[in-house]
Amino acid sequence: MIPDGSTPIKNEILIEIIAKGLLNKDEIRVMAYIIRWSWGFDGVERRQDWTKSLQQIKIAKDINMNKGQLNRIFKKMINEKKLLKKNGCYQFNEHYEEWIKVDNLSTNKSDEKVDKLSTESSQIINRKLIKSQPEVDNLSTLGTPNNQGDNIKNKGLKGGEHSFKETLKENNKETIKEKGIIFSKTWKDFKEMRRKIRSPMTKRAEELILQKLKKLDNNEDIQIAILNQSIMNSWRGVFPLKKESDQKIKTMKDYAKDLAERWEKEEKEKEIEI
Predict the structure, then answer these.
(1) Which of 104, 183, 231, 269 is 20 to 30 A distant from 33 in Cα terms?
(2) Percentage of the chain modeled with pLDDT above 70
(3) In-domain check, residue 153
(4) Which residues on neighbouring strands pair with residue 268, listed in sequence order?
(5) Which position has the higher pLDDT, 57 or 174?
(6) Are the C-beta atoms of residues 85 and 77 closer than 8 Å to each other?
């Protein structure tokens, strides 16, 4: 007598299918679940062959299997006629002589179509990139800008042309070179501060900061004070000076003098150490 809560399974299934390894371990998990929810119930005259309508997401959850993995197993078992499907209901096909061995080529036919489309798309994109490369090269390299005059000579990077980045670098160097040594050292300190606050400047950013300094004031001493104000406050930009009383600076000249003396002292100390 079969105990309550049991599911009857033919001996032939146990020996010829399971024991002889006609199913892999994942297929056995699926088979066990389908049999439980079909043969595990008695029909009116005989066993119930089909499950009720089941969703794969519920099956995956019940047997602790990834939904994508379950979907692949179901697809393979249905293709090989190990599993039958009708209106969302499933039945395990115990007649193993009807099973079909589907090779990887036919099983992955849809995957091959996707791969083919993906390959064709990649080839089209590559052709477009190759075709547009000369235009990119033309944009990435510049000769002497029209508004620069003849003072800047072309230095060969690609075909004897300047890159835009290289042109900016030279322009910035030229602007700082026109200033005094105090401004140059203050500018160096400002750049170092920007690096320490993890906001280093690009060459274009340097150019914009220098332009803004000039707009704020043409006096070099005041520009130095503006830079130091940003350094002391860890500001990324430059802004008009606060009142002299707030900055504790009697005059710009006195401040610049004190700054020069401090740097001169530091340079001498370095020489002594060397």
Answers:
(1) 104
(2) 65
(3) no
(4) none
(5) 57
(6) no
